[in-house]
Design a protein that fits this description.
By secondary structure, the protein is mostly helical. The chain has a two-stranded antiparallel ribbon with strand order 1-2. The longest helix is centred in the middle third of the chain and has 24 residues.
Length: 98
């Protein structure tokens, strides 16, 4: 039994201002129906004793600790820049401002 009708797909497409051809509406109705059926099957096996997961494998944080450190001296940073003026990076003008 189809849970997603062509009319529902056409209505949502119209709300989203997406222009779909008739063949696209038919195709999407079928694809969305398969997705809804798949979710229903998962819900059938999901029981309260099965913990919710966001990933099938356990993940750990791979970032290093955030430890404050002194900043680099401005002169050293600007020495590596292609151009600097008044203690700042100089970049090409892009907006036509003065």
């Amino acid at each position: 039994m189809s849970t997603i009708s062509r009319d529902e797909v056409a209505r949502v497409a119209a709300l989203a201002r997406i222009d779909l051809r008739d063949d696209e509406v038919d195709r999407l109705a079928g694809e969305l129906d398969v997705i809804v059926d798949s979710i229903a099957r998962v819900n059938e096996v999901a029981t309260p004793d099965v913990p919710a997961t966001s990933h099938p494998l356990p993940l750990t944080n791979v970032f290093r600790e955030d430890v404050p450190a002194p900043a680099l001296p401005v002169a050293d940073v600007l020495a590596a820049a292609p151009d600097a003026q008044d203690g700042r990076f100089a970049v090409p003008q892009i907006l036509g401002e003065e």
